[in-house]
Write a structure and sequence with these properties.
The protein has about 350 residues and is an all-alpha fold. The protein contains 17 helices and no strands. The protein has helices at about 1-5, 10-30, 40-50, 75-85, 90-115, 120-130, 130-135, 145-160, 165-175, 180-195, 200-220, 230-235, 250-255, 260-270, 275-295, 305-325, 330-355.
């Protein structure tokens, strides 16, 4: 019985974990406030509404195009429920984020369960719902849900060693999604080449064509191939009084909550050669963002900057626990280890949610 619960590797267990992850995510959401949306969410909604009027990335109907929001693909997703008849801005913002996040988290939990055992999918789910930053930014209206989805597909495509066409497509979309995802796009191509011991020219060409198509379009459509928000932060953010320093990103990434514990678990994923391409992708992203946001940090704690790296760290931690469990020959020992882990996460859950220690934006 213990062996079935912990080590089952089949579609049935994967679907069960998928459903469990969905319910866990939705249940934990009730501990968060839905009284307000993030300011950028209003920007995305404005673009989505004007898109349905045939204006596309236009702030005021009849005005020229303005690339004000940093994630150009997200308004396209918000436009879908508007097109289908949704009228409430809150419903569109919250609903789109929750749908994409729930689908990404649950699908990845089910996939990990199928590939590595039910307990890995359950452990991944618990790590997701016990992280207040991932949960908060999954619904508040920023572009994080699309980030979750693209990273999930990227990790899945590496673990399953998918075709050059899928890798190229995801790499191209990552490069368009946000400017700080461009290094992640390149890392995905490098990880795929490392996995196959050869440079896959097709995936590189596909990614470049997709990304270059957007940035060429942006140059002629907006007049500049980067969003106004990026230019504003580069040119004027240093003029604002800062309430954080260069240690902000590293502290949030590696020390806050259970992140030090996750970092230790993530190191164990290096023991498995088949996980190393994923480590190249995720580890490279964490290092890149750590360096970038330690050198050029915002004037206040924009925690959503760290969300991609935190999500990636949870991927690696789940793979690391698989390596630890694989060394345990005794099923009862594995069950005890999982019980201790669940108890630890329950404590974290209680501290974070029941005491309302949510997250500072």
């Amino acid at each position: 019985m213990i062996n079935f619960i912990l080590l089952s590797k089949n579609y049935k267990s994967a679907w069960l974990v998928f459903i469990l992850a969905c319910f866990s995510y939705i249940f934990v959401l009730q501990f968060f406030s839905f009284k307000e949306i993030a300011d950028d969410a209003a920007f995305f909604m404005r673009y989505a509404e004007n898109m349905l009027l045939g204006e596309f990335w236009v702030w005021n109907k009849g005005d020229g195009p303005i690339w004000g929001a940093s994630a150009p693909l997200y308004p396209l997703l918000l436009a879908i429920p508007l097109f289908l008849g949704a009228e409430s801005p809150e419903f569109v913002v919250f609903g789109t984020g929750i749908f994409l996040s729930c689908l990404s988290f649950s699908a990845m939990a089910g996939f990990l369960s199928y590939r590595f055992g039910t307990w890995v999918g359950i452990f991944f789910t618990l790590l997701i719902v016990s992280d207040p930053n991932l949960m908060y930014f999954s619904y508040i209206g920023l572009e994080s849900p699309l980030t979750y989805m693209l990273l999930s597909v990227a990790v899945w495509s590496l673990l399953e060693n998918k075709s050059v066409y899928i890798i190229g497509l995801i790499a191209g979309l990552l490069a368009i999604h946000k400017l700080d995802m461009i290094p992640v796009s390149i890392l995905l191509l490098i990880a795929y080449a490392y996995q196959n011991k050869t440079l896959t020219l097709k995936s590189f060409i596909i990614a470049v064509v997709i990304a270059l198509s957007w940035y060429t379009f942006a140059y002629y459509y907006f007049g500049f191939p980067a969003p106004n928000s990026f230019l504003t932060k580069i040119l004027y953010q240093n003029d604002l009084p800062k309430i954080i320093n260069w240690t902000w990103f590293g502290s949030l990434m590696f020390l806050k909550g259970n992140h030090l514990f996750l970092t230790i678990l993530a190191i164990f994923s290096l023991k498995n050669n088949s996980f190393r391409p994923v480590f190249v992708l995720i580890g490279g992203m964490i290092v890149t963002h750590f360096i970038a946001y330690s050198i050029k940090y915002p004037f206040e704690p924009y925690n959503w900057y760290a969300v991609p790296s935190i999500y990636g760290l949870i991927f690696l931690a789940a793979l690391g626990t698989f390596e630890i469990f694989k060394k345990m020959d005794n099923d009862r020992l594995k069950a005890n280890f999982l019980t201790i882990g669940l108890f630890f996460l329950l404590i974290v859950f209680s501290q974070v949610y029941l005491h309302k220690k949510i997250v500072s934006i």
